[in-house]
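<goal> How does this chain fold?
<body> The protein record starts here
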Amino acid sequence: MSAQISAISFCKSALPISTEFMDQLRRVIGKHVVDLNDNHITINFRDSSYSAAKGGYHPVEISLIKMADHHYVISYITDFSYCGHSQEELERDLDFDFGNSLALSRPFGWIDISLPEMAELYQLWESNFIAYLEMDVYDQIRIQSL
């Protein structure tokens, strides 16, 4: 399996996705049984202690779509958080939708992913996410492939 994992490459994107981020995705995928012949991989990262009352690390979902043999494009990255005061409901807090060239920020709504502000926001999100992975805060990581 590790030979296949090292062969995974990712397509260029509208946002400045770092090599370190790609390496982290390869590492996570490498720890799970994934059929790289499937066309779609979804990775879910969860901190089981995260709650509306206590806070914690936001759940994250990353979707990859196969473009060619072992070559994937990131379809979307969604960061969820609890919203509202009376209800504990997870909602999209940030969503980088590469397939539709849009980004969602809860305060601003949907905007063009190619705006310079989105690159800055993405870089901040990515650096935090990598730090969280290195701190091993996600105690539930699930991968589905189709």
The chain has a mean pLDDT of 88. Helices lie at 2-6, 19-30, 116-134.
